[in-house]
Amino acid sequence: MGIFDKACPQCTADNAAGAIRCACGFIFDTADANDLGPSPQETAEEERLFQEYLAARVAKAIEQTTVAVHAADVEPANERRAIEAIRAQAVVEKAKVELAAQQARAAKAARAMEEPKTNHDEFHAAQAEKIEQALSTARVMQSLKAGRECPLCTGPLAADAT
Fold first, then answer.
1. E-strand spans in the chain?
2. Quick one: pLDDT at residue 10?
3. 62-93 pLDDT per residue, tens
4. What one-character DSSP code corresponds to residue 20?
5. Based on the structure, what is the number of domains in the chain?
6. ∠ at Cα 107 (97, 57), nearest 5°?
7. SS3 content of the chain, % helix, strand, coil (to 5)
8. Rounded distance, CA 18 to CA 80, Å?
9. How many CB atoms lie within 10 A of CB 112?
10. Crossing angle, helix 40-74 and helix 79-145, to 10 degrees?
């Protein structure tokens, strides 16, 4: 590793000194470079990845619940097995609630990723309108400075005459 490289603390891969993100997904600390925070694309990606993680947790919890319920059915007199089955079902419900909340956050982040395009277009439309208004004002001012004449005698008027 040279002075133009930096190691990823997550996977120990060498990256360029100016790299913001490693191939493994680790985001290097860029707070000193810019204080803008993560981009909408980065936020949407992180929310999507966390959603996938929670979906895997739900699947694992359902699998564990199936095992616990089966064990409780095999030994109906064993209270500990019945309690484990009830707890496993509660874990599944909690994981589903967390997943639903994360799905809402991921959808919001995905929508936010699209918003700058809309805001950008609106900004350009507003700027074009301002430019057109400024040009129109300039044309009016130019015509006022150009030869003005008296409507009665058609003689030239001073620029500051009213």
1. 5-7, 14-16
2. 84
3. 999 999 999 999 999 999 999 999 999 999 99
4. S
5. 2
6. 35
7. 65, 5, 30
8. 56
9. 14
10. 160
Say whether both 20 and 54 belong to one domain. Answer: no
First to last CA, the chain: 78
Domain of 15 in residue numbering reads as 1-34
Name residue, tokens 């419900």: 93
Report the amino acid identity of residue 61: A
CATH number at 81 reads: 1.20.58
Indicate the residue type of 50: F
Pick from 54, 59, 43, 42: nearest CA to 103 = 54
Residue 158 in domain: no
The confidence score (pLDDT) of residue 119 equals: 59
